[in-house]
Design brief:
Layout: H1 4-15, H2 18-21, H3 31-34, E1 67-71, E2 76-78, E3 84-86, E4 89-92, E5 97-102, E6 105-106, E7 115-117, E8 123-125, E9 139-147, E10 151-162, E11 168-170, E12 175-178, E13 183-185, E14 188-189, E15 197-201, E16 204-205, E17 212-214, E18 220-222, E19 231-237, E20 244-245, E21 249-254, E22 261-267, E23 272-275, E24 280-282, E25 285-289, E26 293-298, E27 301-302, E28 311-313, E29 319-321, E30 330-337, E31 342-359, E32 364-367, E33 372-374, E34 377-381, E35 385-390, E36 393-394, E37 401-404, E38 408-411, E39 420-427, E40 432-442, E41 457-464, E42 469-474, E43 486-493, E44 500-503, E45 511-514, E46 522-531, E47 534-538, E48 542-545, E49 560-565, E50 568-572, E51 585-592, E52 599-603, E53 607-610, E54 618-627, E55 630-631, E56 638-641, E57 652-658, E58 664-669, E59 682-689, E60 697-701, E61 706-709, E62 717-726, E63 729-733, E64 737-740, E65 755-762, E66 767-774, E67 783-790, E68 796-801, E69 806-809, E70 817-825, E71 834-839, E72 871-877, E73 883-888, E74 903-910, E75 917-923, E76 927-930, E77 938-947, ...
Parallel strand pairs: 2-10, 12-21, 23-31, 32-40
Antiparallel strand pairs: 1-4, 3-8, 5-6, 5-9, 7-8, 9-10, 11-14, 13-18, 15-16, 15-19, 17-18, 19-20, 19-21, 22-25, 24-29, 26-27, 26-30, 28-29, 30-31, 31-34, 33-38, 35-36, 35-39, 37-38, 39-40, 41-42, 42-45, 43-44, 43-46, 46-47, 46-48, 49-50, 50-53, 51-52, 51-54, 54-55, 54-56, 57-58, 58-61, 59-60, ...
């Protein structure tokens, strides 16, 4: 009901007036609906105003009368005793009477012998009077035009300035100048007198040109001096009468000097404030030997003055800027340089703009008692102030004349005397303009022939509040039913003759609510009924007094904020217009944007300066006024950003990379967030030689984060430092860091060769590694990568400098078998690895004998049958469509060189369960570059080796996710609908692009009324995040809009969608709400309600008025829903019965298999077992001890897999990912633990298990998976599984890529007990968002961890559990479960282990490790 009230009030204004006022009352009272643009009265106007045709009410209705200024007076500069004419001319059908005002007072021109009115209305002032104490003619003049019985208009205000008495502030002085240099001769006078200055040389007028130039201040610049410039100079002021001469100055021109002279500025620019359209001159004159050159920059960008009409370089380097616009605002720097030194100076140019109308008042027809609004919108810099004038008199705001929406004039309850001309006058520091419109009050239409209704009866106030009154009445006696009658309620304040009207919304309604009344005020009401013949009699006036109200202050008007410095802001405001009682104080609230920590300050005046703010940070401010009753209404928030400053911190992570013998590449990161103090505009690089004191060289670069420094000397050490720049200057610099260029240029077009030797010396808890560089010294080596780990060299990786020849690996475990690899690397990539292994000594080992393995000779291993699969498969992501696959072959010599006819097959596919198609390719090297992949897609890779007719099984899989790429398709299904009840608001909906190529981080909505407009002219609405709907408010009614949408991800913007057209509705419904809310709240005051752009309205149907389906549609929908539900239930029941039967049968087979295996206590090997190289350990021969059976039917270690790290669980989408994060505190998606199970992670223990080999049930066969947010879920397995024999690949060598089904080869997960896969762990993929360096290898997941954690080594061991011993059994490496299953697994493993059980578990593991050491030693 409350929402319907505003609509009824709006409708009743129109509908109920028809019988009473005829077609004239159909006119809307608002200015925007019943008027047209009035003629602007600015000086440039010359045509008559546009006029609305009068309402169709017969020939007696008056029309608008053209009345405007043709010419208006302009600002004028005059001199004493001269004559001045101020022009003015007005047009009207009747000749207007012209009068003049000076400083707001009418001039009596009839009795003035010096001032007279010219026939066209201009003002002539003869013999201007001006002295130090008498300035009768100087001031502000205004032309006033009046037409009797029509009205009065006033012109713009013109300022008359009279130049003062001629006197010199500074005079020229004698000096000397070297030939070719510049000199400046001062002649400073009042700014008013500067135009009247001229110069003489040797008592002859001086000719000015590009070399000899007079500044606006009067000073003279002589540049590139020649012998002819020597002589006597004199400055003269001529303003009528005798000229005034300055002192004479003798200038001597000296011959050119061979000695050096320091650079100095003879004249520097000073900050200027100019008006758009004017020209500005910034003087800059420098002298020195050699003769300096001058160049200019604006906002750090060099200005091009050659062949430019905008920027001109005048004498001595002075800069002239023509036809100034607001874009020319900025800081101008003059740089003087002569090859030996450079000096600079700067000045700020501020551009102001005079007021300009965006919308002018329009002529209006209206009736008495109506409300009207004259609209006026202006722009300018500074922001103009607006005042209104009616018939030449300033309109003073009151209860009936109000300024609304900053500049518009609202007149309430019109009376006949309100008729006339209204003018909007806008003024700022630069100028003023005016525009006017005419108001005509129409008479009511005469009543037609027929009976009129009598007076309504029993008018009473049924509800009286502080600010509204509800009136009810009965129908007139002449028409007791009153169904066809409409009513108008006229009301006014007591003793006020200005009456307002409110109409009922529909015929027959006999009540109305009058809003926006004043508290504790007496009002007089009367009601008039209307029928089709016209208005009837008025009811007896009814006096009603509103209730008293505790008056709280209203919002303070004109709140403004401006930044004074990088840390202070000044806020000012006006006194509230409403509220009883004296304002006691104000409370100023402010807070940093994006935070919710609002602070407040008590202020006694109307302005305050807040200090100690953050630099270059946005703050919001609001003000609440307090009186004796408490806090009033808060103002709207005003947002301002503090000024910028130099960065308060140095750039981060400065690194140097020697490219060759003459260049070094610098890399760095910006200063930390929060220390930029503005927009980073570039970086200043300083560098110098270290060997001796030398000049510091300086270079300024853009906003890039790397720079190549060239032209350096060979074999020389250089130091570098860098600082960030803003428009304010240079910030803090980094510390000096040094590096040395190469002695000679080496080859870096390929990776380094294998190091020539590798030596290891094991100790108890450390291993000393030493090596020699590659034999080929012509290839660049930038460093060495040392990998090591228990059983695998990929557990830890350490990089050392290219100069280093040894390294000690610390914090190792005693009596442990470590595998060590060494690779040389450069910018192309890593070279061939060199492998060694070593066993750390036991604590009891007192032997002092050092074990050295010096490039031990290679003993060939007989070819196994089948061949051993490749190991250590790694996926290194290079780009959005390319991944490099590398691996090692244990059947090759230690130098890993292929010398026979073997080849490798690489297969890959996307890691999607539904995708079973593999692509394959063959290669004869130990790496392969896979190209043509999809962006942001997870792939799995595996490799097999083929030699002759023998092939290996597929290796363990490696995973890699390609980098993101900008979206390559636009958002889909863009639709635009109007928001119900708010026709000015629309809702844009869309779907994500089909080729997002990454996580969508936001959208940009473009909309315009012109589909052919340039894209930079469209309005932009940013949408943050992955939302698929957005509201756009305050659109124009009945207007066609075009919409385009663009998606973005971390890599950039995608293409735009096609333009979608939408036309806003023609009518706007009323949303006015009742205002009967007391303002007596305490605290911070009332703040305006802000719904925000994220508000999503309920979506209803589009066919019915209110978005709800019809009864027929509703019944059909109900039938469909019930049918679908029944069918779904039946299908679920059938599937459940079928699955139950299959599960029962399958469990029986598994139990039988388990029982059979448990009966054997000895490991029965296969006679065809292949003996692997000594580098690898026979883990399958280790005995594993299962845990005791638990009474729990679903024991943890039997059916529930334990994820080893956070990467084992892969969310299908972001929502699922966040779900898992929220539900499991123990699961950290952003941490990478050392192959740690979820259980070990919760207990805080260091894990000591790795599973690249077989394990026995009921243990989990756990795989390391790549470290990325999109990895597949952890595997699951049952008690035991049947084994499949791998098919022997006997096909011939097939080059190229091909499609194959997974059924053709043994799945990766299946491992034969006689051929265990002793593979390296699957390598990690670089985390999302990290910078990828193709020169660096992917970090293996074995012992991968976050940077904040200490580095732990990881032992390779079998997994033992509590309880009775079970013999080793072959297992099947399981496939990845769905995410929902993984989530359930996490829940199941949350609370089944106790600390005591873990202690026993770890004790078993320690025993197993001792057995492992004994086996490997034997």
């Amino acid at each position: 009901m409350a929402a319907e009230a505003p609509r009824r009030r709006r409708r009743r204004r129109v509908l109920s007036l028809v019988p009473f006022l005829g077609c004239l009352w159909l006119l809307q009272p608002a200015a925007s609906s019943s008027s047209s643009s009035s003629r602007s009265s600015s000086s440039s106007s010359s045509s008559s105003p546009q006029q609305n045709p009068p309402p169709a009410a017969g020939p007696s209705v008056r029309t608008f009368t053209p009345f405007y200024f043709i010419v208006e007076p302009m600002d004028t500069l005059s001199v004493r005793a001269s004559s001045v004419v101020l022009n003015c001319s007005a047009y009207c059908e009747s000749s207007p009477k012209i009068e003049w005002k000076k400083d707001g007072t009418f001039l009596n021109l009839g009795s003035d012998d010096r001032r007279q009115l010219l026939p066209d209305g201009s003002l002539l002032i003869n013999s201007v009077v001006h002295s130090k104490h008498n300035k009768p003619d100087e001031g502000y003049y205004q032309c006033v035009a009046t037409v009797e019985s029509l009205g009065t208009i006033v012109s713009r205000t013109a300022k008359l300035t009279v130049a003062g008495m001629p006197r010199f502030i500074a005079q020229p002085e004698s000096a000397s100048v070297y030939r070719g240099n510049s000199i400046v001769l001062n002649c400073e006078v009042n700014a008013d007198l500067a135009p009247f200055i001229r110069w003489e040389l040797d008592h002859q007028p001086l000719f000015l040109d590009d070399r000899v130039f007079k500044l606006p201040s009067g000073a003279l610049i002589v540049s590139n001096a020649t012998d002819e410039d020597g002589g006597t100079y004199c400055c003269i002021i001529e303003i009528g009468g005798a000229p005034k001469y300055s002192d004479e100055a003798v200038i001597k021109v000296l011959p050119e000097s061979e000695s050096l002279l320091d650079l100095v500025f003879l004249r520097q620019p000073s900050s200027l404030t100019k008006v758009t359209g004017q020209s500005a001159i910034l003087p800059c004159v420098a002298a020195g030997i050699p003769t300096p050159f001058i160049k200019w920059t604006r906002n750090e960008e060099e200005l091009v003055t050659e062949s430019s009409q905008k920027f001109l370089l005048l004498a001595g380097g002075t800069l002239k800027i023509n036809d100034i616009t607001e874009d020319d605002t900025g800081t101008y720097i003059c740089i003087a340089y002569n090859g030996n030194e450079t000096i600079e100076t700067q000045a700020d140019l501020t551009v102001q703009a005079p007021p300009e109308f965006l919308k002018q008042p329009s002529n209006i027809y209206a009736h008495e008692s109506m409300d009207i609004v004259f609209e006026c919108d202006v722009t300018g810099k500074p922001a103009p102030t607006v005042k209104w004038v009616k018939n030449g008199d300033v309109v003073i705001p009151s209860d009936y004349f109000k300024i609304v929406n900053e500049h518009n004039l609202q007149v309430l309850g019109l009376v006949k005397s309100d008729e006339g001309f209204y003018q909007c006058i806008a003024e700022n520091d630069v100028g003023n303009i005016q525009a006017g419109a005419q108001l005509i009050i129409l008479d009511h239409a005469p009543a037609t022939t027929g009976p009129l209704p009598s007076a309504p009866r029993d008018v009473v106030a049924s509800l009286v509040s502080t600010r509204f009154i509800k009136l009810t009445w009965r129908a007139p006696a002449s028409d007791s039913h009153g169904d066809n009658l409409t009513y108008s309620v006229f009301y006014t304040k007591e003793s006020i003759n200005r009456e307002r009207v409110e109409n009922t919304s529909h015929p027959g309604e006999m009540q109305v609510t009058i809003q926006n009344l004043m508290p504790e005020t007496v009002y007089i009401f009367r009601v008039v009924a209307q029928n089709k013949h016209g208005a009837g009699e008025s009811s007896v006036p009814l006096k009603v007094a509103t209730q008293p109200e505790v008056q709280l202050p209203g919002p303070a008007p004109n709140i403004r904020a401006y930044a004074n410095s990088p840390t202070s802001v000044t806020v000012s405001w006006g006194t509230p217009l409403s509220g009883n009682g004296e304002i006691q104080n104000y409370k100023l609230y402010y807070m940093e944007k994006g935070t919710d920590n609002e602070q407040d300050i008590d202020v006694g005046g109307l302005s305050y300066t807040i200090t100690s703010l953050k630099k270059y940070t946005e703050y919001s401010f609001r003000v609440v006024a307090y009186n004796k009753h408490g806090p009033g209404v808060s103002t709207q928030d005003v947002v301002i950003r503090t000024l910028s400053d130099v960065p308060s911190a140095a750039p981060q992570n400065l690194t140097l990379e020697v490219q060759n013998s003459k260049s070094i590449l610098m890399h760095w990161q910006p200063p930390p967030a929060g220390t930029h103090n503005g927009q980073i505009t570039g970086y200043k690089i300083r560098y110098r030689k270290v060997t001796r004191k030398s000049d510091v060289m300086e270079s300024i670069v853009g906003t890039q984060l790397s720079q190549l420094i060239e032209g350096l000397e060979r074999g020389t050490e250089y130091s570098f430092r860098i600082a960030a720049l803003t428009v304010n200057g240079t910030g803090l610099s980094t510390d000096w860091i040094s590096t040395e260029t190469f002695e000679s240029d080496l080859d870096e077009s390929r990776v380094p060769e294998v190091p020539s030797s590798l030596h290891v010396r094991p100790l108890v808890t450390s291993i000393v590694v030493s090596w020699t560089p590659p034999e080929n010294q012509n290839i660049v080596v930038r460093g060495y990568a040392i990998g090591y780990g228990v059983g695998s060299p990929h557990a830890q990786t350490i990089k050392v400098d290219y100069k280093q020849r040894y390294y000690t690996i610390e914090n190792l475990d005693p009596s442990s078998h470590y595998v060590i690899t060494l690779k040389a690397y450069n910018n192309v990539g890593e070279g061939i690895p060199l492998y060694e292994s070593a066993v750390t000594r036991a604590y009891t080992d007192t032997s002092e004998v050092d074990l050295f393995v010096v490039n031990a000779p290679y003993t060939p291993v007989p070819d196994p049958s089948p061949m051993m699969p490749p190991v250590g498969v790694q996926a290194s992501i290079l780009s959005h469509d390319t991944i490099r696959i590398t691996w090692a072959d244990n059947s090759l010599p230690k130098n890993q060189k292929v010398s026979d006819a073997r080849y490798y097959t690489v297969r890959w596919k996307t890691n999607i369960p539904a995708n079973t198609k593999y692509k394959t390719a063959n290669t004869t090297t130990l790496s392969f570059l896979v190209t043509g992949l999809k962006p942001n897609t997870l792939y799995e890779f595996s490799v097999m080796v083929t030699k002759g007719r023998r092939s290996s099984t597929w290796s363990m899989t490696a995973h890699g996710t390609t980098f993101e790429l900008v979206p390559t398709s636009p958002p889909k299904d863009v639709t635009v609908v109007s928001k119900e009840g708010k026709p000015r608001t629309i809702i844009v909906n869309w779907q994500p692009p089909s080729e997002a190529n990454g996580k969508i981080t936001g959208y940009i909505i473009y909309y315009s009324t012109d589909v052919n407009a340039e894209i930079h002219d469209w309005v932009i609405e940013p949408v943050v995040g992955n939302r698929l709907t957005h509201q756009i408010q305050e659109l124009t009614l009945d207007t066609a809009y075009y919409f385009k949408i663009q998606a973005r991800n971390s890599k950039g913007m995608g293409p735009m969608s096609e333009a979608v057209q939408f036309r806003t509705p023609k009518a706007e419904t009323s949303d006015k709400m009742s205002n009967d809310q007391a303002l007596g709240s305490a605290g911070k005051g009332s703040r305006p309600v802000d719904v925000g752009t994220d508000y999503k309205p309920p979506m209803g149907g589009s066919n019915s008025p209110h978005g709800s389906p019809s009864p027929l549609e509703y019944n059909m929908l109900l039938v469909i829903i019930v049918s679908v539900g029944v069918i779904t239930i039946v299908i679920v029941v059938i599937v459940a019965v079928f699955c139950t039967r299959r599960t029962t049968s399958h469990q029986k087979k598994k139990r039988a298999a388990c029982k059979s295996v448990n009966g054997s206590h000895k490991y029965k090997g296969n006679s065809k077992d292949v003996k692997p190289p000594d580098l690898w350990i026979h883990h399958e021969r280790l005995e594993l001890k299962p845990i005791d059976k638990s009474p729990d039917p679903n024991p943890i270690m039997t059916d529930t897999p334990i994820p080893r790290n956070s990467q084992d669980i892969t969310p299908v989408d972001n929502s699922m990912d966040s779900n898992i994060h929220q539900r499991r505190n123990s699961y950290r998606g952003h941490e990478s633990e050392d192959s740690m199970s979820t259980l070990a992670g919760r207990r805080g223990m260091r894990p000591k298990m790795m599973m690249p080999f077989d394990s026995q049930p009921p243990q989990q066969s756990v795989r390391n998976t790549p470290s990325t947010d999109t990895m597949p879920a952890s595997s699951s397995q049952t008690c035991c599984a049947e084994h499949q024999e791998p098919e022997s690949t006997t096909g011939s060598y097939l080059p190229g890529s091909q499609e194959e089904e997974t059924g053709q080869n043994l799945p990766t997960a299946h491992v034969r007990p006689s051929h265990p896969l002793k593979s390296f762990a699957v390598p990690a993929v670089p985390p999302t968002g990290a910078t990828f360096d193709p020169a660096l290898p992917s970090t293996p997941l074995l012992s991968q961890q976050a940077s904040s954690h200490p580095v732990h080594s990881v032992k390779t061991a079998s997994i033992g559990t509590l309880g009775r011993t079970r013999p080793p059994m072959p297992v099947v490496v399981p496939s990845a479960p769905e995410v929902q299953e993984t989530t359930r697994m996490l829940e199941d493993t949350e609370s089944n282990y106790e600390p005591d059980e873990l202690t026993k578990e770890m004790a078993h593991l320690e025993g197993l490790m001792k057995d492992l050491n004994a086996i490997t030693t034997a």
